[in-house]
Each structure stands twice: as C-alpha cells, then as structure tokens.
Amino acid sequence: MKRTARPEGGPAAGHGGVPLRVPGFDDLDRSWLRSRPGVKWRRVEGGDLPAWVADMDFPIPPAVAGALQEAVAHGDLGYPDWTGGSPLREAFARRMASRYGWEASSSRVREQTDLIQCLQLILHLATSPGDAVAVQTPNYPPFLATLRTMQRPAVPVPMTDVPMTDVPTAGDGRGSRIDMAALADGVARHGCKVLLLVNPHNPTGTVLTRDELHEIAAVARRRDLLVVSDEIHSELTHEPHRFVPFASLSPDAAARTVTITSATKAFNLAGLRCTVTHYGPDRLLAVRDAQPPDLYGTVSNLGVTGTRAAWLHGDAWQKQLLTVLDRNRRRVHDVLRERLPALRHRLPEATYFTWIDARALRLAEDPVGFVRRHGGVLLDGGAPFGTGSEQYLRLNFATSADVLEGILDGVVNALATPPAG
C-alpha cells in the first residue's frame, strides 16, 4: 500500500484543538486511492474526485487487517465450527450493553451478508405485496428501490428542517427532525404494517433524541407496527449527540423491533459483507428460523473474523476516526456557509455525509451531473433519494484533509456562479 504525506492543501487552522493532520488518515496518496479496485474511485476518471458512495478512503483498522492476515496465514478458510451461531452474536450483545446499556439477547441475533438483504428478508417474511411501509424521506436509495421492487408502497414521513431562528449557535444546532404528525397520519390513513426507521439518518445526519424515539414508539404501539430499525451508522455519532437503540426504549419497543447493524460503516469494512440482525418479535424469529438454513446465504469466515476484530479491538482506531470526521464535517460546514451562502446546509449530527439543499440555485438539470461537469467532483443525491430530493446533494467527507479540500474547491467552483437555468 502506497501512502505518502502530502504537505499541500488542508484547512488553514484546526477547529477546537483538533490537529490539522492525523497520521494514517491524512497521509493518503491519490495514486494509491485511484489504484484500489473498489467502486468509489473507479467511477471517476482523470482528475475528478469521488465523494458519493458510502465508503471511506481510509485504510482499514490495523486490528482488522491483522486478524484477516492471521486467518489466511493459518489456512482458516474451511467450514466454521459455529454451533449455535457465529461468535458475532455474543459480541453484538456485549457491545450493545457496554455502549448503550441495552441488554440485547445474543440468542435473538442472526447473521446476513448486508443491510439490504436483511431488509428484504424481513419484508419477505413479515409482509405481503401491497402492505404499506412508512419510511423517512429523503432516504437511502436502495431502501426505496427495495420497496418499489417488492411492491410494498412507501408512505413518506418527511424529515423537516428546523427553522434557522430555532437553531442556536449560528446554525450549528439541530438541522432536521422527523415529522411526527405526518408519521401518525400516514400510518393511520394507509394502514402501514411496518415502519422503516433509519437512525442515525442517511442522508441528513440527524440523530433522533430519546424523546423523539418515545413519540415514534407510541405510534408504533397504537398501530401495532413492526419497526425495522437501521442503526448501521450509530457508532458514527458526533458529540454532544447521543444515539439510543430503538429496542432499548421499553419492553414493548423491544418486542416489536428488528434491529439491523454491522461494523461496515464505522470501521470501513463494507466489502466483508457481514451484518447482524436482532429479532425482537418471537413469531418473526420463529418464521425466520423455519426457513431452509442456507436459502438466504451465509456469512463468510473472513466477514465474521473482521467484524469481531473491529468490535473487540478497533475502538482506539475508531476514536481517531471520529476526531477526523468531526474536523471534516466542521470544515465542510464552514466552507459551504462562507463560500456558498445561497445553499441550505446544517452540521450533521452523525455519519460522514452532508446533505445540501441547492434549490435556491434553480438549476435546470440534475445537480449531481452539474457538479461533476463543472467542478470535477462526483457527489450523490437527487431523485433516487425520494420525491422532493431532486435538487439536493449528498457529500461524503470521509477522506483526507487534502482530498477534502479538492472536493470542496470543485463543489464551490461549480455552484458559486452557476449559469442561469
């Protein structure tokens, strides 16, 4: 792996004592990044920069690399001896208890390859075509595409902006919240069977508060909803915000909630294809376990090995990561506020995404394509994130200080003086 220091670029000063450059995270050589086989950098050409898909540019944690190398060196790629399930079941339960005080039962944990497979399996087992699903909007495009493909009508629950006058500290406070009235009304009018809850929220970066979660739990109880809670970004929550697992709220919430998470986002391991699902409802778990054992695939030795190493030995690396992401989110926020004041943008409370409202520019075309053509940066956003997102952009800031400066320069160059539409 080639990684060399790059003294040029980067912000002029740190924020709140955060160092300008962090070894292992900021010494990324662009030729090394472009040489990697992953989709993120392979989708750009020439000097263009990628800030779109949910992958980080950083090398994987040393503890994970070491565990994977050791497994290969020992030839440990045969059939695993996982009587009663993989070691991740107990590791997940212990992590939930130590981090969030949630006493999740390891006996209710099952392994799948990824988040989308988990959702599709749950919908397949718990619902039928035509059953409505309440879902926050905007939302992760593969979730919305899954609902369309499986013919489960999506009932939008908007994430609404908090008025600027209600946000303290010059716009650095909460940027959006779930529309509780729309949730209650939509569930009642459409007879929803399921609430697909994404917390922390992708793409807005919102972390729902305990009070908000209790409001949602009350709706779920009144309407007897199955809650599928995507908590994959939970460990990327920024101070002073606090993540609360939905199933930890009460015995009723625990009994109706299926929790999906993994180490993939918080430790940059998406390619290992390893996710865990905690089943609260007794009947749904029984139905799941009655399926043919390999019908929906199984996780690999290396996926379990890497995930377990991350959860058991990766916290020091993750602490450094969060320092870098906090610096980067503030840098993005400051640059957009100062150099693109027409855009609406809030400091994300979690994740490594920034959700940018470009409606004020009145672009006559897709904003993702516009920024790529005029700024040489590939972002995500637009219509795939749901109705109303057509003029929004999602920027991934999980990269080095140097690469981030290039991304921000490209975005500003494209959007500072766009041609009249």
TrEMBL record:
UniProt-recorded Gene Ontology molecular function terms: transaminase activity
Keyword Lyase: yes
InterPro entries on file: Aminotransferase_I/II_large, Class-II_PLP-Dep_Aminotrans, PyrdxlP-dep_Trfase, PyrdxlP-dep_Trfase_major, PyrdxlP-dep_Trfase_small
Matching Gene3D superfamilies: Aspartate Aminotransferase, domain 1 (3.90.1150.10), Type I PLP-dependent aspartate aminotransferase-like (Major domain) (3.40.640.10)
Source species, domain of life: Bacteria
Annotated ranges, domain Aminotransferase class I/classII large: 55-405
Keywords: Aminotransferase, Lyase, Pyridoxal phosphate, Transferase
EC number: 4.4.1.13
Keyword Transferase: yes
Cofactor: pyridoxal 5'-phosphate
Positions of the UniProt region annotated as Disordered: 1-21
Family named by the database record: Belongs to the class-II pyridoxal-phosphate-dependent aminotransferase family. MalY/PatB cystathionine beta-lyase subfamily.
Protein's name in the database: cysteine-S-conjugate beta-lyase
Organism placement in taxonomy: Bacteria, Bacillati, Actinomycetota, Actinomycetes, Kitasatosporales
